[in-house]
Design a protein that fits this description.
The complex is a heterotrimer of chains A (175), B (190) and C (675). Helix content of chain A is 55%, strand content 0%. With 175 residues, chain A is an all-alpha fold. Among the domains of chain A are: 65 residues, Cytochrome C biogenesis protein (Helicase, Ruva Protein, domain 3, Orthogonal Bundle); 49 residues. The relative contact order of chain A is 0.07. Chain B has 190 residues and is of the alpha/beta class. Chain B folds into 2 domains: 30 residues; 125 residues, Glutaredoxin, CATH 3.40.30. Chain C is an alpha+beta fold and 675 residues long. Among the domains of chain C are: 162 residues, no CATH class; 219 residues, no CATH class; 83 residues, no CATH class. The C terminus of chain C is likely disordered. The chains are: A mainly alpha (175), B alpha/beta (190), C alpha+beta (675). At the A-C interface, helix 1, helix 5 and helix 6 of A face helix 15, helix 16, helix 17, helix 18 and helix 21 of C.
Chain lengths: 175, 190, 675
């Protein structure tokens, strides 16, 4: 750990520590190269994989909350069989899903639609996150204005001294 | 023990903002509670199905005792398509009601579809209750899927034109027998 | 007799709670401390009532008193003793009784802990709030959730027993009570928050005083949730542990809010800021436990865990409305006192990181809540029936979870108030390299998939950041460095990281399939060889089972996935068998029993890598919570004596959440000139 007193360090100054940047650059390289090399191979998915992908969005009809990909209930197996047949006949996943929805109702599909009122379930969290981030940024800006008057490092120092005084004794020598 | 809250010379704006936020939160919460309060418990019984008013998915094949069964050949009659299994408790309860219903209304045809059941236990189950209607095995559950069956017992009433007019989830009890009879007598209860 | 005892006890609890409220509130209104203190004594009556009612119920369950409707519906002659005892909370009415008992115990503990401050208005109002909650739950048992109702008609000679899934695994004895200890425990900080708001003493002392209560509740809830995952993994037979079911979400929601609160409370304790936010989080935590009860007990959402439909819905919903109205109203009313002094200087500081953490947890909770109730909202808006399930939650939660892991890695290295970049970089270098090395190592070991690699890398980053922090603390002050908020908190972080790694591995690299095998036949699946030996019939006291015998990799005793037949249930219930290991679990189910003797059976196989570490992580979280609750006074002294170079960390611990250190002392905020 650095023994530098924090108060004397320029904050995020961007110069004076170029030397110590090197390990971070190397680190970024290592991570980048590893992720590039570790990306899943891009071959076309097998029929089995495609069946599972579609089934992962379909509720297992006789279960309450499992997907047809997760369950081995007879109806889930039947759903996977139907998906397999559909894919083999060249149907698109959307066609297969709408066939299922035409028998069971829209709530057989576990991924809510992205359009219309139902799209709100996707949009609201994103909108909320943007608003919250904005509010946080605004708050930080206001706080920055509020504290720009005093020297915060000085305040830290005061706090330490105050606390030390309260706990009854000066610190010992540095080890 | 007296506690002092630090009075801060802050703009009155902040207090107002807080109150506005509180009102907004309160309104949203009230609307949310109103929505929850007006929801019905997930219903049991006559249920919505996208198939209502649609042509009934076809059933073609050999019955458990080897006779040909076809839904299309029964056009002109009301048909009750009954999904059942020997391992299902409510199926045992509903069987006597179904048998009585079929006996009282010879013009109502019944087709049983065995759900995840072996042919022997399914036909044994039907025979034990004195059922005389044909039943088909559905080994890969394809018929069940095409009707949108979740779990037995479920029944679908098909009208003489071959349209699905009602879906019944759960065992058929006396009230449901009466509502099926309403359809048969031409009224059709909704 | 038992029903009489039970009814009497419930009535006693209800009346005692009301009397306690009347006495305490009366004393508070007339400013008579002695009357306020006297009101506290009623909590002992409430506790006695809870214990008596529970004893009556257990007596009836163990003694198979089928004249009680609840026993007749949830007990049977063949149910073993353990499941007769746990049968008390296997259905609606009994679970309300368990809730009432735990709440009574918490209130009694609260009364005892604050006995010397009986006349204190904050404690008094907290008592009133807690007793009001108790009155509500005892009231439920007087009305629609009466556990001691007589059966209608003749007394049956036998019953169906508990739901088969609730008499399949001994974890039923631990998961629900732990979960309830968590849920109900948040009543205490909630009650104190109400007390602080009503009296207007909204400084930090109520928060400091309830710190350990909050930790206890949080630890129990965390352990309860992880235990619930473990249980459903072992019982439900699909090889997973979390299905984003409404009931699971209902337990996650308060946990998310409470976790956010634990972090932001640290900011308030240290800086006196975020008062409104902390109060809001506590109100949210408590009201979400009530909302969860509503969602799971009213039958408006479909769930594997929900009890059959009941008439409780409107009552619980009204109570939820009351709690929300009280919370929002009080905070708005006290708005002037809640103005927080002080400022967060920089986003790159500990408090800045806590704020981001809170934003992420709030977003997490919002996504979970919205996804859970959205089908109801959509139906109300335009009559649409739709489902929101796993694909939605996975997609929305994944980025939040990754951001949280990243924050977990960085935040412990950030000092309060303001970060000095070189210091932070020096502290983060080793953890960051641990993360990078993990990614590179995984790639070299053949792991593919960017998301999983990022998850593993971030987990290693966060884990080693926490370990580095712990190592620094232990080096300075010995084993005591593991205690207190910072020490215990970092142990919790390690647990969360272990859990997250197990979660990521099992959800990204699990394999599932079905094998159709004749006796003696072997098959290879995902690197394991499975040999099916045949089936055998087994008989247990509460079930008969057809067990398939399967050896995994030719080692050990055969695993025995089974299909069980419980008395009174016609449908066979799958009982999975798990061969656990530190590298991966092999999870077996008997999907189809051979139709002819000696015929082929269908064996379901799920291979889940590293899943065992999720349960280990849960244990570490529980351990860390205990450590965090321990006082770190010795720690403080010793650190002062040695005074390490890092001044900023000294101040962290000087005023850290140790109850004894800062009780009753209101600190003047830093950064803003005091009054």
């Amino acid at each position: 750990m650095s023994a530098t007193a924090p108060a004397s360090v320029p904050r995020f100054a961007g110069r004076g520590w170029t030397g110590s940047r090197l390990p971070w650059v190397v680190l970024a390289l290592v991570v980048g190269v590893s992720l590039w090399a570790g990306a899943a191979p891009r071959h076309t998915p097998s029929l089995d994989q495609r069946v599972r992908q579609v089934a992962a969005d379909v509720r297992c009809p006789s279960c309450t909350d499992l997907t047809a990909a997760d369950s081995n209930a007879p109806t889930a197996v039947a759903v996977r069989q139907t998906i397999r047949q559909g894919l083999q006949q060249g149907q698109s996943p959307a066609q297969i899903e709408s066939w299922l929805a035409g028998r069971y109702g829209r709530d057989i599909l576990l991924r809510p639609p992205t359009r219309g009122v139902a799209g709100l379930v996707w949009e609201l969290p994103v909108a909320g996150a943007v608003i919250a981030l904005g509010a946080l940024a605004f708050a930080f800006a206001r706080w920055r204005r509020a504290v720009s008057g005093g020297d915060p490092a000085e305040a830290d120092r005061r706090l330490v001294e105050e606390a030390l005084a309260r706990s009854g004794g000066p610190p010992g020598d540095e080890p | 023990m007296s506690e002092v809250t630090t009075p801060v010379e802050s703009t009155p704006r902040r207090g107002r903002t807080l109150r506005i936020v509180a009102v907004v939160v309160g309104v949203i919460a009230a609307a949310f509670i109103a929505v929850l309060a007006t929801r019905q418990p997930t219903e049991v019984g006559q249920a919505a199905s996208p198939l209502l008013g649609q042509p009934a998915p076809q059933i073609d094949g050999a019955s458990l005792d080897g006779q040909p069964v076809s839904l299309a050949s029964l056009q002109g009659h009301y048909v009750l398509v009954n999904f059942f299994a020997s391992w299902c408790g409510p199926c045992h309860t509903e069987l006597p009601n179904l048998v009585a219903l079929a006996r009282a209304h010879p013009d109502l045809k019944v087709i049983g579809v065995a759900f995840n059941d072996s042919s022997t236990s399914a036909s044994g189950f039907l025979a034990s209750g004195g059922a005389e209607w044909p039943a088909v095995a559905d080994p890969d559950e394809h018929i069940a899927l095409s009707y949108g069956v979740r779990a037995p017992p479920e029944s679908y009433l098909v009208d003489p034109e071959g349209m699905v007019v009602a879906k019944i989830i759960g065992g058929i009890d006396q009230t449901r027998v009466r509502s099926i009879e309403d359809y048969l007598s031409g009224g059709g209860s909704r | 007799m038992r029903s009489l005892l039970g009814h009497g006890a419930v009535l006693l609890g209800f009346v005692a709670a009301l009397a306690g409220i009347a006495s305490t509130a009366g004393g508070l209104a007339r400013r008579r401390p002695s009357a306020v203190a006297a009101g506290r004594r009623y909590v002992w009556l409430v506790l006695a009532a809870g214990v008596l009612a529970t004893a009556a119920m257990e007596w009836a369950m163990i003694g198979r008193d089928f004249s009680l409707a609840y026993v007749a519906a949830n007990d049977s002659r063949s149910t073993p003793l353990l499941f007769r005892v746990t049968g008390m909370w296997s259905a609606l009415q009994g679970s309300i009784l368990l809730w009432a008992l735990i709440l009574a115990a918490y209130l009694a503990a609260m009364g005892r802990r604050f006995r010397r401050r009986g006349g204190d208005p904050v404690v008094g109002w907290a008592m009133v709030a807690g007793l009001a909650v108790a009155a509500f739950f005892f009231g439920l048992m007087l009305g629609p959730a009466d556990p001691f109702r007589h059966v209608a008609g003749a007394v049956p000679t036998d019953g169906p027993g508990p739901n088969p899934l609730l008499q399949n695994n001994p974890l039923v004895a631990f998961h629900p009570p732990l979960l309830y200890l968590g849920y109900v425990g948040f009543t205490v900080p909630f009650a104190f928050a109400i007390g602080a708001l009503v009296t207007g003493r909204v400084g930090e002392s109520w928060l400091v005083e309830t710190r350990r209560w909050t930790l206890l509740a949080w630890g129990c809830l965390s352990a309860g949730i992880v235990l619930g995952m473990w249980w459903s993994y072992q019982v439900l037979g699909w090889g997973g542990f979390w299905a984003w079911d409404p009931v699971e979400n209902a337990s996650l929601l308060p946990w998310l809010c409470a976790t956010a609160y634990l972090h932001s409370a640290a900011v308030q304790q240290r800086r006196g800021m975020l008062r409104v936010w902390n109060l809001s989080l506590l109100m949210a935590t408590f009201s979400l436990t009530i909302l969860g009860t509503f969602l799971t007990r009213s039958g408006v959402v479909e769930s594997v865990h929900s009890f059959s439909e009941s008439t409780l819905g409107p009552l619980i919903l009204s109570f939820f409305g009351l709690v929300v109205a009280a919370g929002v109203g009080l905070i708005a009313w006290r708005g002037d006192l809640l103005r927080s002094p002080g400022a967060v200087d920089s986003p790159g500081s500990r408090e800045g990181a806590f704020l981001l953490n809170n934003l992420l947890f709030a977003a997490f909770a919002f996504v979970v809540l919205l996804g859970t109730v959205f089908p109801l909202l959509a139906q109300a808006i335009n009559g649409q029936t739709l489902a929101v399930g796993r694909p939605y939650f996975d997609r929305m939660v994944l980025p939040i979870a990754l951001c949280l892991l990243f924050l977990m890695a960085v935040a412990p290295a950030l000092p309060w108030r303001k970060a000095a970049a070189p210091v932070v970089r020096a502290r983060l270098l080793v953890p960051a390299w641990a993360g990078a090395a993990t990614i590179a190592g995984c790639v070299l070991a053949g792991v593919r998939g960017v998301l999983a690699l990022v998850a593993f890398g971030l987990a290693a980053f966060a884990g080693s950041s926490a370990l580095r922090q712990l190592a620094t603390r232990v080096r300075r002050s010995g084993p005591a460095g593991l205690l207190g908020r910072s020490g215990g908190g970092m142990v919790v972080h390690v647990g969360v990281v272990v859990l997250a790694a197990g979660f990521a591995a099992s959800s990204a690299f699990g394999h599932r399939g079905e094998l159709r095998l004749t006796p003696g036949q072997s098959a290879a699946f995902a690197g394991h060889s499975l040999t099916y030996l045949g089936t055998r019939d087994a008989r247990y006291s509460n079930r008969t089972a057809v067990e398939g015998l399967v050896t995994v990799d030719g080692r050990g005793l055969p695993a025995r996935p089974a299909v069980s037949q419980f008395a009174g249930v016609t449908e066979g219930i799958g009982t999975p068998a798990v061969v656990s290991g530190p590298r991966e679990d092999v999870y077996l189910t008997l999907d189809a029993v051979p139709s002819t003797p000696g015929g082929p059976a269908v064996i379901g196989v799920v291979v889940q890598p590293l899943i065992m570490w999720m349960w280990v992580g849960g244990g570490v979280i529980a351990l860390g919570t205990v450590l965090a609750a321990a006082p770190d006074r010795s720690q403080r002294r010793r650190r002062l004596a040695k005074s390490p170079a890092d001044e900023i960390e000294v101040t962290t611990d000087l005023v850290s959440g140790d109850v004894e250190v800062s009780r009753g002392a209101e600190r003047s905020p830093v950064g803003v000139p005091g009054p």
